[in-house]
Amino acid sequence: MNASTLTRGGRAGKRKAAPAIEGAARAGFTARGVIYLLVGLLALQIAFGGSGKQADQGGALQEVAEKPFGGVVLWALGIGLVGMALWRLSEAVFGAAGPDGGKAKKRLASAARAVFYGFVAYSVLSFAAGSSGSGSSDGKSRDATARAMELPAGQWLVAAAGVGILCAGVWMVVQAARRKYHKHMRLGEMSHRVRRTVDVTGVGGGVARGLVFAVAGGFALRAAVEYEPDKAKGMDDTLRSFSETPVGPWLLVFIAVGLMLFGLFSFAMARYRKV
Fold it and tell me: What is the pTM of this model?
């Protein structure tokens, strides 16, 4: 069997797997949308003093668990996120959609996303199975920071991680504001009204999500500089910090609504994303 035969066989295999991978990706976007909607809703309740739950993934999962058929929904969310991880893994192996999808930089980014969504999926499925492993993001963040600082050059590692998260947040804001997501979507299938709605959710949601990441990265950097692991914050404490600004809870309201918009944008991605 020669190399050309192997190449043809690989391409054929990729075509046969495409429908399953596409379904996995769209299920993943849907699951992500549900989680962001719930986190945004919890943050909104916190802004108005009406929720004792954590405004993070753990709080969102607890909210789902308390509803009728919550256990079934939790398993569906976890499986959907597994689908997202598998899709990103397939991009790392075979290349992403688009003319530059096979570049090493794109493959590396897809591999990193596969690891991230794999971890999130494991967390959700563990919660669905009755484990408490999905607990507070704030406690996890502080514990991880403390352990990292105990390593050789740990303070530098935490600082580098903080800078990385902060830069990723700024990048998300810029990408959303410039509507870079357009190149990943089937815009020709949208009506004018749908496209306008997608832009409202994509820009507003992407900017809010990026700001949360940037602020969380700033807290991690501060923890490293001051050598105080407790200064690191998870999503819940990061969101609550927005209400401690001079404008009071209204900045948190803005961020909460933005996260809910990002949830809706994720649903649009599930429908119109090129896979």
Answer: 0.84
